[in-house]
Amino acid sequence: MAGKNQHVVRREDGWAVLGAGNNRDTARYGTQAEAIDRATEIARNQQSEVLIHGRDGRIRERNSYGNDPFPPRG
Known about the structure:
globular, five-stranded mixed β-sheet, DUF2188 domain-containing protein, DUF2188
């Protein structure tokens, strides 16, 4: 079973990693790159996805670390 997707979101004081459905941040960082690194580590462990949000709050990138079918269904 796959774990929770991890979102990298902007906060007033930096960037945060937030598990899907959670009310509280998993962790906060000064830079987006640090938050992405941590979210990626969690997603790999949980075989889930990282959704990276831009400054405007919209998803700008997503990376999957789960059990994806290959080749992808088209």
